[in-house]
Amino acid sequence: MEFVKILAVSDQVLDRIYTLSSNGHFQDMELILGCGDMPYTYLEYLVTMLNVPMYYVPGNHDPQFDIRSARAHAEGGINLDLKIVRHHKFLIGGFGGSIRYRPDGTNQYSQTEAYARAFKLLPRLLLNRLQYGRALDILITHSPPFGIHDDSDPAHNGLKALNWLIRIAQPRYLFHGHTHFYKRNLANAETTIGLTKIMNVYPYKAIEASH
User: Fold this and answer.
1) For residue 15, what are the contacts with CB-CB under 8 A and spacing of at least 6?
2) Residues paired with 159 in a beta bridge
3) Domain residue spans of the chain
4) pLDDT confidence of residue 131
5) Helix/strand/coil percentages in the chain, nearest 5
6) Beta-carbon neighbour count of residue 187 at 10 Å?
7) Topology (CATH level 3) of domain 3-210
8) Is 129 in contact with 83 (CB distance < 8 Å)?
9) CA 188, CA 151: separation in Å to the nearest integer?
10) Which of 33, 110, 156, 176 has the least CB density, counted as fewest CB within 10 Å?
11) Are 158 and 145 in contact (CB under 8 A)?
12) Which residues in the chain land under pLDDT 70?
């Protein structure tokens, strides 16, 4: 069985992370995963301090991706939105953005638009299943799936396309942000659906993932 130690972050900058990382607290982490709405300078700091690969997806408060703009991508990391990579022996995919709640919102999609985006991953998922015997190990998203860790207000409804991806790809893990879980409901931050453990990483989690 393969293992990888992951630092996953989303939505909130914590001064404590600066202190912990500078003191070597995360020195055994092998991978950084960003689940959206993180200042790219913050992600870049983590990459610099930990010196490990980083993959991230954009959130609904992030700018539209633009490799030519230093403010619209994180140096040292890879925007994994609608992409799948093989990191060592782990297959990792990304799906950025949230439900559309403003007509002009960046990285926001209707349920129908989100399905259309998810379908773009299907050829690679099928190829992975043929080549590796499985479609995906880890899916990082900004939004939670519909009805799982989401909320009833228009800005925090989950995306139904993610429920479809869980059924089709059956990843071991789905890490997301967007909904802010505090101590009072931290027990609800992890849910298992079939083979997939769904984890709200807000504001950060250190995870040992396996496949």
Assistant:
1) none
2) 145
3) 3-210
4) 97
5) 25, 25, 45
6) 8
7) Purple Acid Phosphatase; chain A, domain 2 (3.60.21)
8) no
9) 12
10) 110
11) yes
12) 181-188
